[in-house]
Amino acid sequence: MSSSSQTLMAGIQITSFIFISSVLIHTCSADVDIYSAVMPETVTALTGSCVQIPCTFNVSNFEDKRNEAKSINGIWLKKTSKFAYDDSLIAFNSSKNIIRGFSDIQMTGNLSERNCTTVFYNIMMNHSDLYYFRLEMEPNGFRATFNPDTDNSRKTVRITVKDSPQPPELKSTDLEVMENTTVNLSCSAEAPCPKQPPTISWSNIPESAHITTQLQEKPDKTQSLFSNMTFKASYMDHRKNISCNVTYPRKTSKDSTVETTVMLQVRFSPKETHITVNPSASVSVNTNVTLTCKSKGSPSREMNFTWYKRGQEMPIAQGKKTSLIVNHNNTGSYLCIAQNKHGKQSSAEIQLTVEESGFSQRVIYGCTGGLLAFFLLSAVFFYCMRTKTSSQAHVIGRDQATDKNSDMVAVYANSSIATSKKSEKKETDDLHYGEIDFSKLQTGDMTREHSNNGPQTEYAEIQVTGRNNKNQKC
Ligand SMILES: *[C@@H]1O[C@H](CO)[C@@H](O)[C@H](O)[C@H]1NC(C)=O
Ligand SMILES: *[C@@H]1O[C@H](CO)[C@@H](O)[C@H](O)[C@H]1NC(C)=O
Ligand SMILES: *[C@@H]1O[C@H](CO)[C@@H](O)[C@H](O)[C@H]1NC(C)=O
Ligand SMILES: *[C@@H]1O[C@H](CO)[C@@H](O)[C@H](O)[C@H]1NC(C)=O
Ligand SMILES: *[C@@H]1O[C@H](CO)[C@@H](O)[C@H](O)[C@H]1NC(C)=O
Ligand SMILES: *[C@@H]1O[C@H](CO)[C@@H](O)[C@H](O)[C@H]1NC(C)=O
Ligand SMILES: *[C@@H]1O[C@H](CO)[C@@H](O)[C@H](O)[C@H]1NC(C)=O
Ligand SMILES: *[C@@H]1O[C@H](CO)[C@@H](O)[C@H](O)[C@H]1NC(C)=O
Ligand SMILES: *[C@@H]1O[C@H](CO)[C@@H](O)[C@H](O)[C@H]1NC(C)=O
Ligand SMILES: *[C@@H]1O[C@H](CO)[C@@H](O)[C@H](O)[C@H]1NC(C)=O
Ligand SMILES: *[C@@H]1O[C@H](CO)[C@@H](O)[C@H](O)[C@H]1NC(C)=O
Ligand SMILES: *[C@@H]1O[C@H](CO)[C@@H](O)[C@H](O)[C@H]1NC(C)=O
What we know:
Bound molecules: 2-acetamido-2-deoxy-beta-D-glucopyranose
Shape: rod-shaped
Helix content: 25-40%
Strand content: 35-45%
CATH superfamily of the largest domain: Immunoglobulins
Radius of gyration: 50 Å
Number of domains: 4
Number of strands: 29
Mean pLDDT: 76
Distance between the termini: 172 Å
Low-confidence stretches: 1-5, 7-31, 390-474
């Protein structure tokens, strides 16, 4: 029994010696091997897309170790640095290209050049975690997990997975600018996976815009897609929504386009100044005409308007609108000047005229006037025939009237009848006066008729009067 217990004791001693020495050896090698890694603290990945972890490392005497080693393996551990634990996961082992929990992982960096850059493909929500890098140089070379728990120079990376992309960041030198100043707009979007970079598109691009787009590396070596637009602010860009759209290639039907919009405020002197006239620039007398001065300017609140009439030095009115009752004295050329603190602009002149009557009215006047004259002349003709000549002459007269209507109108209107009526006019009332004026209308002078009264009602009176007179006379 004693001998057996002795051998047992010896066995324990040997075991503990081996254990202690192995700890010593391990501690020794740990002291010797200084190692570090550089990678971003966090990367934000998008589901259905890929994510690149930029990664470099260093190990003391790395060149020697590398030259001695037959192989160098890079390993990514998920959740914990203790890969032997149950809840840990060896997501990737470059040695046998083991991939667990991911559809694909590629170490794109060359480990022999201390580059452990890795791309994780087809990211899913459950990939959100902390990841540890481990290096193994075989055989009997350096083996260590770059665990930051014990040394600040050993970094780890957290992959944060999002289901929808982050809207791009849109920066401007200044969003409130004077016309013609150069504006720089910079739209930047995260590019978590430069292997499958997003694309940027702009909308409402100013005319003079110059756009450059490129991937740029941030200090933590992750990348962003920058699209910079430089343009000269035009008044046309005022209050325009300029937007930057970013589209991510994704293996999912989820929204892959996000947009950010800015509105530019451009300050400028009045532009496109012009006058609108209501109802029209050619109206009958006594019409209330409203002139409106339209202009684009910024700031528009502070814009004021001044009205001028050609031939008058002083402004005739202030304000966006001005109204006037048209008469023969206030016809002429009008213009307005729009002004804000950045300058002023004059509109083109508009011509305000008195229109005697519309085309259709003129046609009605002409036709009915002609008819009336015809009746009038015929009546006079018959009257003369009855008093002076035979029934044969009567027939001829009628033929002449139909054949050469216009000639006869001219002859009678200008000479005998007109003069004979004029003598009546002075003695009698307005109706007679109207009659005389009407015969003048036939020869083309329509002006006075209108300036006195409403044209259409007056005409009706003339017609009736003319017939009545004739009937009475006949
Ligand atoms: C790697 O580390 C060694 C010593 O620790 C240092 O001399 C060397 O410059 C480092 N190399 C790089 C690329 O950082
Ligand atoms: C990685 O794979 C190699 C080769 O199969 C193996 O020897 C090594 O133990 C693996 N590393 C880990 C951490 O599983
Ligand atoms: C994530 O979920 C998918 C399916 O839902 C599964 O195949 C994969 O193994 C999971 N990955 C991890 C790292 O848990
Ligand atoms: C590491 O490798 C990646 C992928 O090949 C490359 O883009 C990157 O420039 C490399 N980094 C260094 C520091 O060489
Ligand atoms: C990695 O780098 C080493 C040393 O610079 C070079 O010999 C080797 O060809 C590289 N491997 C790859 C896959 O580029
Ligand atoms: C801006 O440029 C336009 C076109 O070159 C010019 O007509 C305008 O006067 C300029 N405006 C200012 C405020 O300089
Ligand atoms: C705007 O961008 C242009 C060209 O990239 C540059 O020359 C200019 O200095 C920039 N202006 C400002 C205010 O950043
Ligand atoms: C930008 O994206 C929005 C949706 O977010 C879309 O309605 C719009 O048409 C896109 N514009 C461009 C220029 O792609
Ligand atoms: C774009 O603009 C940003 C911010 O002004 C600047 O940091 C970046 O260098 C610019 N990129 C290019 C390609 O001009
Ligand atoms: C003319 O019309 C304007 C707008 O309808 C009105 O404000 C103004 O009082 C009118 N003028 C007259 C004299 O009726
Ligand atoms: C038009 O002007 C003349 C002379 O200036 C004046 O006698 C007349 O009363 C004015 N008529 C109207 C309608 O204003
Ligand atoms: C119109 O605005 C300008 C600039 O804001 C100012 O200098 C001017 O006095 C204003 N004119 C009137 C009549 O208010």
